[in-house]
Amino acid sequence: MPLHRIYHPLSAFSSSDKQKLSERITALYTDRGLPAFYVVILFTPIESESFFVGGKPTDKFVRIVVQHLARQLPNEEAKKQFSERYENAIAPFIKDKGYDWEVHVEEVPPEMWRENGLIPPIKFPEIEKEWARQNKPIPY
Amino acid sequence: MPLHRIYHPLSAFSSSDKQKLSERITALYTDRGLPAFYVVILFTPIESESFFVGGKPTDKFVRIVVQHLARQLPNEEAKKQFSERYENAIAPFIKDKGYDWEVHVEEVPPEMWRENGLIPPIKFPEIEKEWARQNKPIPY
Amino acid sequence: MPLHRIYHPLSAFSSSDKQKLSERITALYTDRGLPAFYVVILFTPIESESFFVGGKPTDKFVRIVVQHLARQLPNEEAKKQFSERYENAIAPFIKDKGYDWEVHVEEVPPEMWRENGLIPPIKFPEIEKEWARQNKPIPY
């Protein structure tokens, strides 16, 4: 469900950084009861000569695009809180290393969303819990 | 119009697989009368150490992001049918090879969509048919 | 804010082309008073065997996905004008070189958008001007 595309300079993250950052992002959702496998994170390295901020090539900027499907946050306050939790999750690997960064989160209507071809059980909390427990999509 | 971004493990698809899968996806739209050239499909290989599902690196997952512009499917039933047709189109190259996968389709308002700088003839079915026949954008 | 993802054939753009094209795109926004650093442009080369248009591999097509956050264009006329200005900006490096191309612009609600962890001052024109003057996000 949540898809995180992280565009970053070639040397921004070690394998271990990517592992730990992914775990921190994933926990934002599993803490709320969502199945872990819903969280997909794609790291995309971009060469300096292909990464422009303000019309200048950069190797000091990280751009993150997040898409949410399983949950639409109900109001401005909830959205604000999510952004704050997200910023805390990523800070050790971006802010604290001296990068500039930008994040936005999109909320995509879930009608044409499928996991292994199955309609995710957004409206069936008990089934969603079972998906979370088994950490995979199960026909229902 | 439909843009399909397919994020996949390095070894998931041969050139021939990509060719055949693209043809199957394209047919979903040309069968409905849309110009073939509207269908753009981008395969993006992602290394295992940059592809995380549930906080773990993976080489067994395919994530597909689809964007529709030319047509907004009018209701929940039409959306459901599209997802079913899509799943059938991709199954031989993903499900049947043992990958896990996730798809979502977004519907993007078409006001700022252009093909070779031209406003696509969404509201002019006869012109759209001509674009489909010639398989290229034609000034009108 | 505006994020431009430019998917292109391997040999479409030299480093100098990317530099100049980025400057032209950035100017579309700085001309309207937006901070230069809001404009992020990512060039993503796609191999011919992974880039399909109409079910056929191509090395003559450029696909651009633009996302706007800081401003929602208020009506159809404003959107049309933006698309025209955009087409003019990119023409020397795409149309004039014989490529086919497709662009679409999405308008994303800005509630969960952050620059270096800060809420961009969409509702505070004076602060936005200061961000533009200093070309960086400043706590306020």
Automatic annotation (TrEMBL), chains A, B, C:
Pfam families: Tautomerase_3
Membrane-spanning parts: none
Domain Tautomerase cis-CaaD-like: 1-136
Protein name: Tautomerase cis-CaaD-like domain-containing protein
Species the sequence originates in: Adineta steineri
Lineage: Eukaryota, Metazoa, Spiralia, Gnathifera, Rotifera
